Amino acid sequence: MLSVEALGKSFGGLQAVQDVTFSVEAGSITAIIGPNGAGKSTLFNLIAGAVRPTSGRIRLNGEDVTGLPAHEMAARGVARTFQSTHLFQEFTVIDNVMAACQLRGGAHLWDALLRTDKLRREAGALREQAMRALAFVEVAHLADRRAGTIPQEAQKRVALAMGIATQPKLVLLDEIAGGLNPEETDRMMALIRRLVDHGMTVCFVEHKLRMVMQLADQVVVIHHGRTIAEGTPAQVSRDPAVIEAYLGGGGIAAGG
Amino acid sequence: MRLRWSFRRLAWMLALLAGLLAPLAVGNPYYLQVLTLGLIWAIGVYGLNIVLGFTGQLSLGHAGFFGIGAYTVGLLTLRVGLSFWVALLAAVVLTMIAGWLVGWICLRTRGHAFAIFTMAVGVIINLLIDKWDSLTNGQVGLVNIPAPNAIGPVSFDSAQARYYLVLVFLVLAAYATWAILRSPIGRAMHAVRQSEELAAAIGIPVMRTKRLAFVLSTVFAGVAGALFAGYLGYLGPDVTGVDITFDMLLYLLVGGMGTVAGPLVGALLVGALTQVLQAFQQYQMLIFGPVLVILIRFFPGGLAGIPAGIRRRRERGPNPPPLAAEPIPAAREEV
User: To pair with A75 at 20 to 30 A between CA atoms, which of A5, A239, B33, B160?
Assistant: First the structure.
């Protein structure tokens, strides 16, 4: 459903991503891994439309979506979470998720000013949808708490609920399990599997190898802004290029 | 929850009652004028509240749009002989167009650049009005602007009647603020203020939201300016000055950004304080400055933000019902 072809992005002289090519099957889980600074987060920013690529193509279900802005990508069914947990801190949890639900709503300024029936109906529907998304990630009991005051794992789940609330086809998770302990990570993995059970396609960036090995159908390895390997977890973990990238290439590896 | 709601409703009802009775209680025509002008400024500040308080964009060209509204009414009623109401409509349309065009350009910048850019726009509008003698009468300004035309039996020749006219628009401005705040659009604006990146990621069109807020703010300023011209009957280029923008900013900061009551509370309170301090003339600011610093330090949400601040502090107090234990740093799993 997603295909990325020779994607590149340079910031001034720095080539953050230079030649990334891979594709993602609908209903699959793809892990994107690579050493720090390999360009993983930039790649997500490119796919989600937060940053415009300088070269290459992105196709979503056959449609060329290269360079579309982030809110257009969200409208086309691409949801993403950020590496550092990112919520609207001043909002309550439910307001955070309702803000995401609004994408599929249709109330305009006149509806707001005249407080039309449409607005009332939509407000009710938004709340219901948001509660469903919160229930899906099992934090419905925190709905009325201010987002900045809930525990970290719950914040990550709310961030995920916001993604789900946009009714996405493709979900991009940038280190969703970062900073979580092993039990919390297990729960997060179960949750990601449930996303797929509900018809979503998942791409995630992660440093936790256990999560990559257990969860991913496909692994894409990026190093210095290029794809250096693509395959099942087992294939990739035996790939000499991958081993070299992780253990340090050149003289050190040869010498050691 | 129910209780707090009715308290708030009661406070608004009392404020409205006070507003309706004020001309009867205020015998002195000078004080009535101060009060009326306070309400007119409050309408302008409601505009600033939407662009700055809701959406987080510090627009410093606000007095310029106030001036466009004021001069549109002044010139159309005086030179063309149009009715005040037609001129008011024209002022709304014109500030809307001006706001859209300026917003279209200015909103490409962010933060300080946006503030400086909009301030420059304000200065340009001020200069245009000041120097374009043949159109605006320059420094001399416009005098004998007719009072708003009578609507049926209701005439606006008396200061009291014009006070009530302004009050109607103030209520509309406060209502619009409240309605927007509670709507998906208000939520989108607040989301943009907190994080443009996250807002875009969940599908909020950031640029369109900011532009809507900007245009709404200029329309509020334009209406306030139009009422100003119709109320006072005279007009000079100084109403478009940058210091007027900063006055409005001061009202908003004191009253409370992003709240429904803030603009009104700020405009009236600071307006009253200015009157009281008038005896001190140029030393006014020596008193204003420290008061503002203390206020911002201890009540960053302004006066109208105090209840919300208390509520938030109370929320932070007791232990949260945890989903699971907080992650212990030592137990983090990294590879």
Answer: A5
For chain A positions 153-172, those within 8 Å of chain B (CB to CB) are: 153-154, 157, 162-163, 165-166
pLDDT value of position B3: 54
On whether any CB of chain B is under 8 Å from the CB of A75, the answer is yes
User: In angstroms, how far is the first alpha carbon of chain B from the final one?
Assistant: 47
The encoded tokens of residue B66 equal 């106030």
Token pair of B316, please?
Answer: 């932070």
Name every chain A residue with its beta carbon within 8 A of the beta carbon of B316. Answer: 149
Instruction: Indicate the pTM of the whole model.
Output: 0.89
Residue to test with chain B: of A181, A187, A237, most B Cβ within 10 A: A181
Cβ-Cβ contacts under 8 Å between A and B: the total is: 142
pLDDT band at B221 (very low <50, low <70, confident <90, very high): very high
E strand residue ranges, chain B: none
Quote the ipTM score.
0.90
Chain A nearest C-alpha distance from B182 (Å): 8
Residue A79 CB contacts under 8 Å (≥ 6 apart), including other chains? A162, A163, A164, A166, A168, A170, A171, A172, B201, B202
Output the six-digit token pair for B104: 């279209």
- Residues paired with A29 in a beta bridge: A202
**pLDDT tens string A136-178:** 999 999 999 999 899 989 999 999 999 999 999 999 999 999 8
Residues A80-132: tens digit of each pLDDT = 999 877 899 999 999 999 999 988 776 788 888 988 888 888 889 999 999 99
Instruction: Report helix, strand or coil for B59.
Output: coil
Q: What span, in angstroms and rounded, lies between the C-alpha atoms of A8 and A28?
A: 24
CB-nearest to A88 from B186, B191, B206 is B191
